[in-house]
Amino acid sequence: MKTLLKTIGIVSTLIGSSFLFQNCSEKESIPEGIIPPTDSVSSKIEIKNFSIEAQIHTSPDSTVTMQGEGFLQSDTVALISETAAGRADSLGKTESWPEVSNTYALPLASVTKQSADIVMPKNIVSDTYQLWLKRETDSCRLGKTTLIIENAVDLNIPDIAGMTLKGVVYCENKPLPNVVVSDGYNVVQTDEQGRYYIQSDKKSGFVFISVPGNYEVAIKDNNQPVFFYRLAKDDSVEQHDFELTATDNTNHVLLALADMHLANRNNDLSQFKLRFLPDLNTTVEKYRSEGKKVYGLTLGDMTWDQYWYSNRYDLSKYLITIKSVDLPIFNCTGNHDNNPYCADDWQAEQAYKDIIGPTYYSFNLGNAHYIVLDNIQYINTGASQGTIGKRNYNKKLTEDQLSWLKKDLATVTDKNAPLFVAMHAQLYANPTSLPQKNTISMSGGSTLVNYLKEFTNAHVITGHTHINYTIEPSDQLIEHNIAAVCATWWWTGKNGYANNHICKDGSPGGYKIFSINDNDVKWLYKGIKEEESKQFRSYDLNQCHITAEAFAPKSTEAEMGAYSDTYGTKNNKNEILVNVWGYDPEWKVEMTENGKPLEVKRVVAKDPLHIISYEAKRLNVGATPTADFVSCATAHMFKATASNATSTIEIKVTDRFGNTYSETMNRPKSLSCSMK
Q1: 13 shares a domain with 162
Q2: Which of 197, 370, 475, 525 supports an S-S bond with 582, CB 3.0-4.6 Å?
Q3: CB-count exposure of residue 86 (10 Å: 0-12, 13-18, 19+)
Q4: Could you report the per-residue pLDDT of 526-569, keeping only the tens digit for each?
Q5: Under 8 Å between Cβ of 80 and 130
Q6: Final residue before a domain boundary, out of 149, 182, 199
Q7: In the prediction, which pLDDT does 9 show?
């Protein structure tokens, strides 16, 4: 904003009128103790036809234009509060300008033959000011004016009895009302002056804001948004102010990143650097080039508690590793992000709080409201300092957290806007029978679902399982259980293994891309090092005979047979199996043979490529496959039967948004670790 001061071409001094005019050749030196005095009482500076309004309405960072002839670009204008000037007179030369309160030294921003500009400083306050011009060792008084500072942020807010937290939320020196602020228990909103007060016992250790839509906070060099402050563990009054930056993130992309499991093992750091990081940064660049804001959200298990100490890789190392991602990243805690030496949930999660931040909070991007929750109650039986416990846990939302959640949701006024609830462990269990059953699998899950009933566009996004599946219990709620960045814990891509990156359900290791524009939400799963158009994999089951001889020659047929599932027996039924990892009931899977549609049935099955990529490779090096890592049954499988063993099959998959993905399947199609 630019405040223009009019020129009136007369020479006189008028105090208390609409304007003040003065020639700067008067025999008046600058006040001692404020600006170093001139060498002579008589100023040699001459500013002709100077004029300034007696009262100016302006704001911080605004430009004020002074009219007058004779300004030099090297001049400095001092705004000296009359109160400060009087104080300085009483102090003599003990305090020098500009250290006196409400005194500002302003270089000229620009100069013309008839005017000069000054920019109001960020901390300018309303007051009556003397204006002095300083030129080298010379100075002269220009006049005085009263500044009325509008929309300025006053950070000097009073205490209120009983309130232990206070602060101001602002942007470009303007206070922001109605911003949600919380200590993890209480939820308040800022007033018209951007101020908040909380009567807090500081139990959570944090005060944080729910960053409003179309604003951003500062980003640390490790990509973490700075939306919180850590609190002292006492009953003192603390002031924490939040400065925001205005932006337009109405049209944005959220990249949901589940289960990185970085542990400095299985060549994970190398795979992360060579596979994942280039893929993710390419995705970020793609969507930014389309004019969209892009953000990241982890879904827990960024690390692996078991290896924090033995492999010297904990959450602090994760923050260093993730710096290579050109993306602001919000984080969510998982069961493997707890201190394995602690047998108490509150104590075990303290490391996460110290290194990362709050375990639950909310923020907004555009119209969308995001809530991050901690649904892991870490038990870790038998743990003590220096001893790793069993690392057992419950999937649970605590009562304190549910109470906070209810208060946070109450601040969301638009019930039709996108609402996302992110947490580590799944809300609904993996459907492994047909017809599909939707079974809540965590304590507190029913309460959560009940809270979400008033929202028409609610999404729950989770990880933990290392597989993909989608649950849609109503037309208002959908859960996206998202497969892992690490796939099968970085095993199949480990040196000497399958040289691929595949999850337990056959999905490629990857992440989910949510595109949100106003209230419209779209999504797709992106495999690492795969094109976005890669949404399924097909198998010629005639060629999917898994034996030790073929895939684990250093093992035995008995050992391989324990893991080969139905693929241990030769199949000559001319069946086609298609694994559609992003499937939900709104998708459509079609197969044709010589132009004739085939009957397609949804089935529950294991993925043969994962069996030969993990179980077979483990057996071949004389190791027993880890139970948590072996292939799992999934219901995003589809089967059809061809008329013979060599016909070409056309496969067409259409997602809920009308996007189509296709493959011409030439048979026979062999099963191998390098297949696509």
Answers
A1: no
A2: 525
A3: exposed
A4: 999 999 999 999 999 999 999 999 999 999 999 999 999 999 99
A5: yes
A6: 149
A7: 27
Same domain, 545 and 606: yes
Please report which confidence band the pLDDT of residue 125 belongs to, taking 50, 70 and 90 as the band edges.
Answer: confident
Q: How far does CA 521 lie from the centroid of its chain?
A: 17
Q: With contact defined as beta carbons under 8 Å apart, do 305 and 391 qualify? A: yes
Instruction: Return the amino acid letter for 497.
Output: Y
Q: Is the pLDDT assigned to residue 37 strictly greater than 90?
A: no
Question: Which DSSP state fits 573?
Answer: S
Residue 665 has which token pair? 């399947």
User: What is d(CA 183, CA 408) in angstroms, rounded to the nearest whole number?
Assistant: 11
* pLDDT at residue 31 tops 80: no
Based on DSSP, count helices (H) and strands (E) in the chain, helices before strands: 12, 42
Q: Are residues 428 and 307 in the same domain?
A: yes
Q: What is the mean pLDDT of the chain?
A: 91
End-to-end CA distance of the chain: 58
Q: 241 and 294: one domain?
A: no
Same domain membership, residue 288 and residue 221: no
**Which pLDDT score, from 0 to 100, does residue 250 have?**
97
Percent of the chain exceeding pLDDT 90 equals 82
580 CB-contact burial (10 Å; exposed 0-12 / middle 13-18 / buried 19+) = buried
Task: List CB contacts of 597: < 8 A, sequence separation 6 or more.
Answer: 590, 591
Q: For 191-202, what is the mean pLDDT?
A: 96
What pLDDT is attached to residue 122? 79
Non-local CB neighbours of 673 within 8 Å, separated by 6+ positions = 492, 498, 499, 500, 609, 612, 613
Give the structural domain span for 191. Answer: 153-246
Q: Are 462 and 477 in contact (CB under 8 A)?
A: no
**Domain assignment of residue 313, yes or no:** yes
Sequence letter at residue 653: V
Task: For residue 154, count CB atoms less than 10 angstroms from its CB and return exposed for 0-12, middle for 13-18, buried for 19 or more.
Answer: middle
How far CA 529 is from CA of 281, 502, 622, 670, in Å, comes to: 12, 11, 30, 22
Contact at 8 Å (CB) between 487 and 268?
no
CATH of the domain at 279: 3.60.21.10
What secondary structure does DSSP assign to 327-374, as a single string?
S-EE----TTSS-TT-SSHHHHTHHHHHHT--SSEEEEETTEEEEE--
CB atoms under 10 Å from CB of 597, counted, come to 11
